[in-house]
Specification:
Elements lengths: L2 H114 L1
């Protein structure tokens, strides 16, 4: 055997070993891709109903928030009406009350002066 034939046989053997490793790696890659494909199919099957439920829940929460917003506005309106009523009662009652107290004090002083003479 000549040295070039020995080198050619060694290179061929090395190439066969490399091809064997490449085939093994490709087989493992195919198995991994099949598993990933199965995982994606399973996720699609299970996530779709979950996403639908999530959309329904978000819609319900939005509806509840709309109702809560209406309640808050109503409470604000009631607060405004109570404030207005309080102010009106204060204006209606306090002015005559102050006048009555002033007249009473004036009358008291007048009576004191008349009686004191």
């Amino acid at each position: 055997m000549t040295p070039s034939l020995v080198i050619a046989v060694l290179i061929a053997a090395a190439a066969l070993v490399l091809i064997g490793f490449a085939i093994s790696a490709l087989v493992q890659l195919k198995k991994t891709l099949v598993n990933v494909d199965t995982l994606v199919v399973n996720l699609n099957e299970k996530l779709s109903p979950l996403l639908n439920d999530l959309q329904d829940t978000v819609k319900q929460v939005n509806d509840e928030l709309g109702q809560f917003d209406q309640v808050v506005r109503t409470v604000g309106n009631i607060g405004d009406k109570v404030s207005t009523t309080t102010r009106m009662v204060h204006e209606i009652v306090s002015s005559p009350l102050i006048r009555a107290v002033s007249i009473s004090a004036g009358a008291k002083e007048a009576i004191k002066k008349l009686v004191g003479r």
